[in-house]
């Protein structure tokens, strides 16, 4: 068969060989054991695809620590068992029911392109996202309930409020999954929500009353 | 409003403060500029949620370099503009049409739980994954065409062949997206497919003839 | 000379730098003084090597507070002044006669692999631990007198009873050390025994009648 | 039966209740899972009982990460399968053969009372440690080969050189254990040696040539 695939760019090949000769070699024993015995991550992280957000770095995580799903705007859609393909729900199901992670952390961030697009779309400034054919627009529909809660704030506060809503809405949607709710209620799983400010490096987390404060 | 959210575990709080006092502080200027000017990643990576796979580490990537989507088994579903929520397609659309990444890399890996589950399901050994309500099962349906190509191999070669199929099927599906095909044909985007062996750290990549060889 | 030593894994290097830039820096004065004036811990803790037991965490201990010896199953062997190497006895001697700690706390825990191994060995189910060459088996011999006291209990109560015996036997053995007995009798040292339930976080302590109750 | 045990001091009871209401509660899910599934630490740490040394803090370790043995001066005695009780050898055997840790880290420190005592004893200034009945003296005999390598250095450099020897001698002794040597040679285990300066918080590690440099 033929494929469209091209060789990896040279600078990436070079870095990979460097990684293998250093980091991999130094941790060969641990990587080998992780491969043989299987992963056993303590937490699932749901964060954005954005190239400026790296939860492994922020939390000094070693290989094997976090099961990480990354999508646009770190969103969790509601439970929808319709037999269709739901990548986020599949990742959730695997993490909670098979891996039995103890923590599930929604990691939002400032300056999120997805959230900004959602705001523009909901405010009527981005009709192209409203098209049925816009995958980004349809994905960001998940955050519409959040827009309704921020649209009466002063204009210049709405987008950052919506970034927090991306976390709050996802936390709400998480609890619509029966296996998440059951694990939370039995004490086997705890949920956490936070927003990372990519400009100044700070982290705020949400408490039980829906308020955010610095970690 | 109330939320189900709990405070972040203390060891993560401690590590975050450590990160902020060192890595963040040392790179403050770059992070600040990335935040102000927006991201401009050179590549999109599609890799698995598995806690043992970290493309940033393997490729020594700095903040801002890779736009990373992670889902179960690093799969890309076919183009399906049905107005439903497609997280992977949304990430693709954003990376290719808005960020205009130059490379799109599908990063598979060995010992993939999702691929093993798909194999069991297709071989008839995991009826629970065949249920309409199994999110993992429905997600792994994307890989069924790959199973059909490996099912006549010797039993003990099928799963690792299917791990490679997860990359090949995704490369094929990528080309069903008009915006991907257009960017590839105009030379603005190149596609790459590889499988990372998490036991011995090696990397193989697929060439235009569909064959895999060591990088 | 050559050594077999390898560089520290990178994620630990990163975390160490984070610790030094935060916790260490914030407590620099206290650490400096502790280093210059010497330690003066108020208690010695004897606990298990098990990665799930951390007395510093449970008791909110600051640097300098506890002198901590950790071995398999938190055992104290009997006084045996035979000129051989006794790591636990050396730690005891240093804590009681040089540091003059005021409290000596034996901290047992549930789900102890060492205790389970001892039970299997004494019950005849782990002949490999009975070999002269098994370091774990010989070490767990210290707990044999405890096994004799639990072996007539119902089968399913024996292991957890033996976890408590690991504390009781150690308390008994402590009193065979002349310097411990002297310090206890003069009122300069008090002994304490407890078992930490690592599942539910509770702590039980033994009283003068040998009964355990919640702290 | 009667015991000599006394109730836990009130301030410790109070802190324990605080820990249980906060840290434990917030991590209930993870602690519960660790208890049910068993520990799977990635590294064994051998460090000193000294109250000023806490590897969990320095390395931001979570519960379940490190299997920790602590004895006077972080020493490993040579392999001695004589059927006697060897607490350190038992901990080693359990970590390497049962838990199959990937890293084994000897963590020395400055201002070590045990090392200072060893120096005094070997230099003839502490005859009481030379007594057959001194547990500390007999334990520190393990470090005598190190003293022979530092005794011709200028007087004021000997003790700190001996602190590094405590790490080097232990690394050498580790390799006398057949199960350690086998795991190192098969690539399943890597050894690491370092000395923590408790005054200024720095860490030095030894390389393959026996030289120490800052981490």
TrEMBL record, chains A, B, C, D:
<dbReference type="Pfam" id="PF00484">
    <property type="entry name" value="Pro_CA"/>
</dbReference>
<feature type="binding site">
    <location>
        <position position="109"/>
    </location>
    <ligand>
        <name>Zn(2+)</name>
    </ligand>
</feature>
<dbReference type="InterPro" id="IPR015892">
    <property type="entry name" value="Carbonic_anhydrase_CS"/>
</dbReference>
<dbReference type="GO" id="GO:0008270">
    <property type="term" value="F:zinc ion binding"/>
</dbReference>
<protein>
    <recommendedName>
        <fullName>Carbonic anhydrase</fullName>
        <ecNumber>4.2.1.1</ecNumber>
    </recommendedName>
</protein>
<dbReference type="InterPro" id="IPR036874">
    <property type="entry name" value="Carbonic_anhydrase_sf"/>
</dbReference>
<dbReference type="InterPro" id="IPR045066">
    <property type="entry name" value="Beta_CA_cladeB"/>
</dbReference>
<keyword id="KW-0479">Metal-binding</keyword>
<dbReference type="InterPro" id="IPR001765">
    <property type="entry name" value="Carbonic_anhydrase"/>
</dbReference>
<feature type="binding site">
    <location>
        <position position="50"/>
    </location>
    <ligand>
        <name>Zn(2+)</name>
    </ligand>
</feature>
<keyword id="KW-0862">Zinc</keyword>
<dbReference type="GO" id="GO:0004089">
    <property type="term" value="F:carbonate dehydratase activity"/>
</dbReference>
<feature type="binding site">
    <location>
        <position position="48"/>
    </location>
    <ligand>
        <name>Zn(2+)</name>
    </ligand>
</feature>
<feature type="binding site">
    <location>
        <position position="112"/>
    </location>
    <ligand>
        <name>Zn(2+)</name>
    </ligand>
</feature>
<comment type="function">
    <text>Reversible hydration of carbon dioxide.</text>
</comment>
<dbReference type="GO" id="GO:0015976">
    <property type="term" value="P:carbon utilization"/>
</dbReference>
<comment type="similarity">
    <text>Belongs to the beta-class carbonic anhydrase family.</text>
</comment>
<keyword id="KW-0456">Lyase</keyword>
